[in-house]
Amino acid sequence: MNPTTPHPRRAELIQGLLEWLPADAVLYEPEDLRPYECDGLSAYRQMPMVVVLPKTVEEVQVVMRLAHRFKVPVVARGAGTGLSGGALPQADGLLLSLARLKSILAIDPVARTARVQPGVRNLAISEAARPYGLYYAPDPSSQIACTIGGNVAENSGGVHCLKYGLTVHNVLKLEVVTVEGERLSLGADALDAPGYDLLALLNGSEGLLAVVVEVTVRLLPLPERAQVLLAAFDDVAKAGAAVGAILAAGIIPAGLEMMDNLAIRAAEAFVQAGYPVDAAAILLVELDGTNAEVSEQVMQVRERLIASGAREVRTARDEAERQLFWKGRKAAFPAVGRISPDYYCMDGTIPRRRLPEVLSRIAALSQEYGLPVANVFHAGDGNLHPLILYDANRPGELERTEELGRRILESCIEVGGTITGEHGVGVEKLAGMCVQFGALELAQFHAVKAAFDPAGLLNPGKAVPTLHRCAEFGAMHVHDGQLKFPELPRF
Amino acid sequence: MLPAADLTEPLAERVRAAHAASTPLAIVGGGSKSWLGRPVQGGVLDLSGHRGIVSYEPTELVLSARTGTPLAEIEAILAERGQCLAFEPPHYGVSATLGGTVACNLSGPARPYAGACRDFILGVRLINGRGEVLRFGGEVMKNVAGYDLSRLMAGAQGTLGVLLEVSLKVLPRPPAELTLALELEAATAVARFNAWAGQPLPITAACHDGERAYVRLSGAESAVRAARQRLGGEVIEAGATFWQSVRELTHGFFQTPGVLWRLSLPPAAPVAAKPHQFIDWGGAQRWVLSDSELWDQATGMGGHATRYRGGSRDRVFQPLSPVLLALHRRLKAAFDPKGILNPGRLYPEL
């Protein structure tokens, strides 16, 4: 897929780019390309042929027109924090960095919107909106670094999405540049737009349909108050049942997070959040709203947690303790990184009631492969992040880790879930796509792609595997005792 | 109540035959929204027998049902467990089905605060124009595997696929609710609606009927009580009935004969003194009775228009730009290469 010989018209392309863009916006020397060879999934690396850093939408259009004329693949990139290799470059391709398009163009406190360029960091939007008592709700853990353009490409979530939705629920309008270099407006400053919902389609399309050059997001009023409860359980099944009991009581918490024992111990050792290190699981339940409402719901949730068998329920005494409770959760990934040379983060989503069986399955697989797994769980919306601990320096361990990861994701599909809740497919989960979808669905995805990008130049080889690729994977993946695509030839 | 039945196979067979013969199909559920679009010529593909709730797990906040299931049946089952469709869909008739609601992407007064129909879609099963039965999305809240083709079906009015089954996120009904009437002029009301929406208040609907403003508060008892004190106005006894009349377009305003236009605008767009209008969605949806066409007026205000009810049914939806229309045509062809599914329902070219 990535030929090692350079594109025959590399020199021509670079020359064309330099005619339109300043010299510091076109990189092609190996030492300049190196920082772009991978995104947040560093196990996959590939140097691009050329990197361009446009500063204006017009420059993006020029780049796309040139790439289109020379038939050069284009991979768009924001901050490069993605966890599925979605921004992995192509050896014969152009890496289009949107990092220099980083202006907040307008904040409209009356209509409650922010119009921003794609390279603006997620958290920067909330910071700019704060003086107006507003904020941007989706808050992926990487929010201090990740960009809104990347959030749109991945349809990013965060710890507050059960109540406030994903990126798709919080974006009103996109300006995009098509593969031919045409500028197009999708969505509206109103609440809907005529025609097909292309705005929804673009969210989560992983840079395969168009390049996002401007985003208008919806801003929400900052809640009057937020309060968090921490509950400790001796049994993960009880913690899972407590989540169901809270939701069944008609309460939608702003955040509802679970961590298992290994994750608790790693986080506690790292940031001393005061977590009970002997608990099998903890739940963090955040309630927000008006002062009176939060007081009322804290009491109700506390009762439900105790009735569900929590051995201890703590309410943060002040804002400092609330921040501390969250610090442990938000630091869970780096905390695991401290206790293991390497870790591999999975991103399955499951119907929440199946949590106990999926966790026991993961525990059994962990034993079988001899690799510890820590579990961090967006419990409210069923999004599970098992973190597999491994050491890439031990021969064969990365391969075993990846295989364990694949088997965990297959368990998620078996219980009616999905291989990715918020990190995207990228290059990492192409094999899982062959298990989750049949040949007809994959063909429909490709037809949609072709409607936007007939030549397949935008982020090729990502997100949706070809049937040929699935046939190759098929040799390894047997699902429910049946081969997917039995009609396809095997190798 | 008719028995549940899965008609996937016969329906898919009909579409395959229509594809083979290149004959158009007019997709019909309960027929309650047949007027909401351009007329379709084609053999009737009746979905009303394809009905039944496939799964409902209140603690998962998810319901899946076949598309011929009456909307009223779904709402009744949710109400039994203290839950609801938070986007408050209009029915436009007792025969309204889940499929028609999703195909038209219909949302009621709660839309600016709770989200639109499309925001609650988690997954669909559909038949594309080749007669293939496909499943996208699922029953989980977060799912980014593959393109989001489920949400794309909302508002496509059957032109991209015959919806077979839809999984929706459902939410608890608020424990307390009340409606306030406020003596405000339309322009002042819209300014207030926008200001209030920027504050942490439990507002779930806000409209102006040409005479007065109405605001609905929903949520925890204490939050509703506190907001009621702050906003003032007078509590309306029959609040639920009032919002139902807004949702179903049966309020007195809509009884006046004439062509009914829907303007979807930025919520703080200026309010013209004339013509007489009904403002909903906190300012973002404005109903106008007008014999003249409002396409340019709507775009001039940063939104779009729909010739919602009455008048010429040749042009119902705001025309698309040539680039956007070309993309729509390619997308239509990707699902329905022979153009047999509800052809012309949205635009003559689709």
In short:
In chain A, 37% of the residues lie in helices and 20% in strands. Chain A has helices at 10-20, 30-33, 57-70, 122-129, 148-154, 161-164, 167-170, 198-202, 236-248, 261-271, 291-307, 319-330, 332-339, 355-369, 397-414, 430-436, 439-452, 467-474, and strands at residues 26-27, 50-52, 74-77, 94-97, 104-108, 113-116, 134-135, 171-177, 183-187, 211-218, 220-221, 225-233, 255-260, 281-289, 312-315, 342-345, 348-349, 373-378, 383-390, 478-479, 482-483.
Question: How would you describe this structure to a colleague?
Answer:
The complex is a heterodimer of chains A (491) and B (350). Chain A has 491 residues and is an alpha+beta fold. In chain A, 37% of the residues lie in helices and 20% in strands. Chain A has 18 helices and 21 strands. Chain A has helices at residues 10-20, 30-33, 57-70, 122-129, 148-154, 161-164, 167-170, 198-202, 236-248, 261-271, 291-307, 319-330, 332-339, 355-369, 397-414, 430-436, 439-452, 467-474; strands at 26-27, 50-52, 74-77, 94-97, 104-108, 113-116, 134-135, 171-177, 183-187, 211-218, 220-221, 225-233, 255-260, 281-289, 312-315, 342-345, 348-349, 373-378, 383-390, 478-479, 482-483. In chain A, strand 8 (171-177) and strand 9 form a beta hairpin. Chain B folds into two domains: 8-172 and 329-335, Uridine Diphospho-n-acetylenolpyruvylglucosamine Reductase, domain 3, CATH 3.30.465; 176-309. In chain B, the strands form five sheets. Chain B has a five-stranded antiparallel β-sheet. A four-stranded antiparallel β-sheet of chain B has the order 11-12-10-13, sandwiched between helices. Chain B has a four-stranded antiparallel β-sheet with strand order 15-16-14-17. The chains are: A alpha+beta (491), B alpha+beta (350). At the A-B interface, helix 8, helix 9, helix 11, helix 16 and helix 17 of A face strand 7, helix 5, strand 9, helix 6 and helix 7 of B.
